[in-house]
Amino acid sequence: MSHADLDQTAKSILTDNDQGGYTIPTKGLYPYQWNWDSVFVALGFATFDQDRAWREIEMLFEGQWRDGMVPHILFRKDDPSYFPGPSVWGTNGGPIPSSGHSQPPVAASVVLDLVRGDRTGQALERAAALFPKLMAWHRWYMTYRDPDGLGVIAVIHPWESGRDNLPDWDDALRAVEVRDIEPYERKDTSHVDPAMRPHKEDYDRYLSIVAACRKVGWDPAKVAETCPFFVADPGVTFIFLRANRDLLVLAQQLGMGKEADEIRGWIARMESGAKALWNPDIQAHVALDLRTGKQTDGISCASFLAPYAGLTDTATMAAQRAHFDRMASKVRYMMPSYDPEHGCYEALRYWRGPVWAMINYMIARGFAEAGDPARAERLRNDTAALIETSGFAEYFSPESGAGAGGGTFSWTAAIWLTWASPSHVEQAA
After folding, report:
1. Which domains occur in the chain, in start order?
2. Residue 429 reports pLDDT greater than 50
3. What pTM does this model have?
4. pLDDT at 198
5. Percent of the chain scoring above 70 in pLDDT
6. Would residue 62 show up in a list of annotated catalytic residues for this protein?
7. Catalytic one of 49, 113, 164, 271
8. Which residues pair with 338 in a beta bridge?
9. I want to staple 394 with a disulfide (CB 3.0 to 4.6 A). Which of 177, 343, 406, 419 is the partner?
10. Any residues with CB less than 8 A from the CB of 192 and at least 6 apart, and which?
11. Backbone region of residue 180 per phi and psi (left: phi > 0; alpha: psi in -120 to 50; beta: other values)
């Protein structure tokens, strides 16, 4: 298939998955609106319909909770093909039935991109309408996912990280007592090969965490205090640090001086706090279990988001380049979601090895901004090759390039349109 044909296919995936202003990740497996999926999808729509790109984000924020949180799933309709649905979550925090926790907060960064790439003349007005909602969400993160002011962002559930089945969660998840769950039937394994999905014992613990948070009414302060899973995540931390930097730019453009000062305080706190995630033994940023104080010992794709967050000191960049090159010598396609030399690596199991297009996009952007265009281009070329070889899959084997998970996946199509497509690169040049 030619690049022009792939461009058209990617556009068709977005329009086919459009549910009337919001986009589902893929039909069958994920029938609702997912938080960070929608935000990446906006980047894809922006290449051919900027009004529709803004609408995607605006509809996401229609589900914002009263406390400022933007949920990871908005259940705009009850679809029996998905589990766990709204009845399992038992939330009442906002105007739309939803899950009870959030997802990586990429929205501010994408809103700034939409402003910078505006062709409509309306971007600043639409950004101004979203700005107080973004501020409320960011305040929620700083208050309830960093309650002790450490400068690192915790997740209360592996699903909140967006990287659900990552080996970094294994130890903390094993400490979760399986309790207060009813008999259930998973739906994900009816859509996808079970060998590529989380194990049953992991799912039991996922649902036990949901039950524990439901028991305290999803009160964010009580959740932070009592949730059996509370792990500082380099992925959410680095994405959020970047989002705060981009929100600061928006605040300055919109003349929000008081808010700009508040955001500067968040940035300073997080720049200092990120040091707590550095594992000197393996020379990388890793997850930190805030219940036990134990760091993880593996390098995930999130470890490479430090430059994207603006952490580009000499020691960090030297370690990043060394790990990048080492991993590149072990797999055919970059960036595996976990170190291929770690014992927990699995090339095709969800988040334990596969390549994800939107992660490659963020890592590459960080490397490019840090003055390393060669590694950024390696990631772009590999992402394009994976899509050319295996289509718009949810994720890909870093070894064979085989596509896996859901098909005709919205954010893979979006990343192709906004970044990976050779025709897009030619136009940019």
Report:
1. 3-32+149-428 (1.50.10.10)
2. no
3. 0.95
4. 61
5. 94
6. no
7. 164
8. 300
9. 406
10. 29, 404, 405, 406
11. left
